[in-house]
């Protein structure tokens, strides 16, 4: 069986910040210049704030002296102009950044969705689905916050810190040194507290992924939970991961919220000291003018705020970069191999199964550059095929069999014998380790996946119905079908009558994988979907397992029509559905131990005979 990695991947600090930033930068596409414009606007906003406070001192000194009204007017208008321009820049970069970030996230989600569809099934076997969902939700959300808010603010905070340091030096070096002591103290506190924040925030994000996985598992298995009265156990297991999140998030927010009171307290002490020392300097004439003292105190008052903002936003940036790295690792996962050169080409319109075979062919490239058309028949040959989900643990061992055009081949055997695996290999959901699978004389590994899978129709035990109408779900196998063709397919699958009894008939909406229908009705819709599709190979993997005996007899007659002129591969526990097969293969421990028709196997009086007579059971 496929391996499943049940533990979600941990959130962590980005391992390569520059590489991640550069890759993220590529998602801005042709709008990169707007990002540069945002940086310029943010820098000017900071300049307006810092230089405006410096100009404020000059305005005050000019007003106190009252010597030059023209200079006062000029200084005042200059100050107003600086602040107005700063406000305009602030509004501009905010709006630009919102539009840029949404564009980036749209492109990133689109790429995630496309890549998710192109991954091999083995990836989903080995990874928890909650972990994959977290790429689309938690990781993208952290990036949303960083791009919308933190990117511009971290540049603004940094510029404000640098600007404040420079302005204080212009006012008075000794007064500046007093404030620098406090600024260094604040910076050291932030540095060590941020390390704690990052540690617990990393744990918090990891526990969120665990909660997502648990919630998804409980929702998908709600019927099983209720059937076995495991509501309390389910809650206890959820409560366990929820408490782990509570512990991590409490510590994370404690250290995050600790920044504000500590920095505010230090800033008040700093301001008090600055007021006293600044007044002494003014009285003794070591600084000139009340305006200079006012500028000094204004810069002292706002010097702590950029540190607080910088800390908050640098944490958001680092978290977003860590999430981006996780997304990029997911996007770098190897996609499903499709190196085939043989294409399924359309020669004309096909309205029936016979037409489908005659109107489609395999286009096989030749060494001289030409192509050869090979008729589409539906013949399958397995030659010494060995396969294991884990390479050193084979599920199928040296399997060989053939299915000629129009034959019905059945596979029986205990659970885990490899029946469903055979089906998965024909459609190349997995690649074999040894041997060959030949389709119409062509190795399936040489076929393009789109053409290979388009030539096969499949009905599995686990029917999946999408959110949409019944008509849309039936048409899923052949989207261009007409309403008349949909109704004919439903009649063949014996589900037309119950569909018409529904309030909205074929326009009835299905939700939650079609659970507003019975299991049998869902299975019948899957058969209708297969009936609408016309490819020459039909695969039925326990297709009647959820249908009662009475319905099975009616469906079997319809399936006999459905299977005409097709190569049919059947997996079934009910021997009544396989006894009229051209050949029955009995699998055990990954090997074919018996083969033959129903009558031939009964004469052998082996494992199939024991099963048929009820002397043995399929496990």
> What order do the strands of the largest sheet run in, or round the barrel if closed?
9-12-13-6-14-15
Number of helices: 19
What is the number of beta strands?
15
Q: Tell me what portion of residues adopts beta-strand conformation.
A: 5-15%
Radius of gyration: 35 Å
- Tally the structural domains: 3
Q: Kindly name the structural category.
A: alpha/beta
Give me the CATH superfamily of the largest domain: ABC transporter type 1, transmembrane domain
At the third CATH level, what is the topology name of the largest domain? ABC transporter transmembrane region fold
Low-confidence stretches: 1-12
Binned, the helix content reads 55-70%
Q: What is the CATH class name of the largest domain?
A: Mainly Alpha
Q: In a few lines, what is going on in this structure?
A:
This protein has 619 residues and is an alpha/beta fold. The chain contains 19 helices and 15 strands. The radius of gyration is 35 Å and the shape is elongated.
Structure description:
This protein has 19 helices and 15 strands. It folds into 3 domains: 28-331, Up-down Bundle (ABC transporter transmembrane region fold), CATH 1.20.1560.10; 343-375, no CATH class; 380-612, P-loop containing nucleotide triphosphate hydrolases (Rossmann fold). Helix content is 60%, strand content 12%. The protein is elongated, with a radius of gyration of 35 Å. The strands form 4 sheets. It has a 6-stranded mixed β-sheet with strand order 9-12-13-6-14-15. It has a 4-stranded antiparallel β-sheet with strand order 5-4-7-8, covered by helices on one side. A 3-stranded antiparallel β-sheet has the order 1-2-3. By secondary structure, it is an alpha/beta fold. A hairpin with a 2-residue loop joins strand 14 and strand 15 (591-596).
């Amino acid at each position: 069986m496929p391996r499943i990695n049940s533990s979600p991947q941990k959130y962590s600090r980005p391992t390569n910040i520059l590489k991640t930033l550069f890759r993220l930068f590529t998602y801005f596409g042709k709008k990169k210049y707007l990002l540069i414009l945002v940086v310029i606007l943010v820098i000017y906003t900071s300049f307006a704030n810092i230089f405006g406070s410096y100009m404020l001192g000059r305005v005050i000194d000019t007003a106190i002296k009252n010597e030059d009204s023209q200079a006062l007017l000029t200084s005042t208008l200059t100050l107003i102009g600086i602040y107005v321009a700063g406000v305009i820049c602030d509004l501009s970069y905010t709006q630009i950044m919102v539009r840029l970030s949404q564009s980036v996230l749209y492109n990133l989600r689109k790429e995630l969705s496309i890549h998710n569809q192109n991954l091999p099934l083995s990836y989903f076997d080995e990874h928890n689905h909650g972990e994959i969902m977290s790429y689309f939700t938690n990781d993208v959300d952290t990036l949303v916050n960083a791009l919308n808010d933190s990117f511009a603010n971290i540049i603004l905070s940094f510029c404000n810190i640098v600007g404040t340091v420079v302005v204080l030096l212009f006012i008075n070096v000794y007064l500046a040194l007093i404030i620098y002591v406090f600024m260094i103290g604040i910076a050291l506190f932030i540095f060590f507290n941020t390390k704690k924040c990052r540690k617990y925030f990393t744990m918090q994000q990891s526990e969120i992924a665990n909660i997502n996985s648990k919630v998804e598992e409980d929702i998908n298995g709600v019927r099983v939970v209720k059937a076995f009265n495991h509501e309390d156990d389910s809650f206890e297991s959820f409560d366990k991961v929820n408490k782990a999140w509570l512990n991590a998030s409490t510590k994370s927010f404690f250290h995050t919220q600790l920044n504000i009171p500590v920095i505010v307290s230090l800033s008040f002490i700093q301001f008090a000291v600055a007021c006293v020392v600044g007044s002494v300097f003014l009285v003794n004439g070591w600084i000139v003018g009340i305006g200079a003292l006012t500028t000094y105190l204004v810069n002292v008052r706002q010097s702590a705020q950029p540190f607080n903002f910088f800390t908050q936003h640098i944490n958001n940036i680092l978290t977003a970069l860590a999430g981006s790295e996780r997304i990029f690792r997911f996007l770098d996962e190897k996609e499903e191999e499709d190196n085939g050169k043989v294409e399924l080409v359309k020669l004309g319109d096909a309205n029936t199964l016979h037409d489908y075979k005659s109107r489609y062919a395999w286009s096989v490239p030749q060494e001289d550059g030409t192509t050869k058309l090979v008729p589409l028949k539906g013949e399958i040959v397995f030659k010494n095929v060995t396969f294991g989900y884990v390479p050193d643990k084979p599920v199928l061992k040296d399997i060989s069999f053939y299915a000629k055009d129009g034959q019905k081949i059945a596979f029986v055997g205990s659970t885990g014998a490899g029946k469903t695996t055979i089906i998965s290999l024909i459609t190349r959901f997995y690649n074999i380790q040894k041997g060959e699978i030949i389709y119409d004389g062509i190795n399936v590994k040489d076929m393009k996946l789109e053409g290979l899978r388009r030539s096969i129709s499949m009905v599995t035990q686990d029917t999946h119905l999408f959110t949409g109408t019944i008509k849309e779900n039936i048409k899923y196998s052949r989207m261009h079908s007409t309403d008349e063709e949909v109704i004919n397919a439903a009649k063949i699958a014996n589900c037309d009558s119950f569909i018409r009894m529904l309030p909205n008939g074929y326009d009835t909406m299905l939700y939650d994988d079609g659970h507003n229908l019975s299991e049998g009705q869902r299975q019948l819709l899957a058969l209708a979907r297969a009936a609408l599709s016309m490819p020459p190979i039909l695969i039925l993997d326990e297709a009647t397992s959820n249908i009662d005996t009475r319905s099975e007899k009616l469906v079997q007659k319809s399936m006999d029509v459905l299977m005409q002129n097709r190569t049919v591969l059947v997996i079934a526990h009910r021997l009544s559905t396989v006894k009229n097969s051209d050949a029955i293969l009995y699998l055990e421990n990954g090997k074919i131990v018996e083969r033959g028709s129903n009558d031939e196997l009964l004469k052998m009086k082996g494992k199939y005979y024991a099963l048929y007579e009820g002397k043995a059971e399929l496990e």
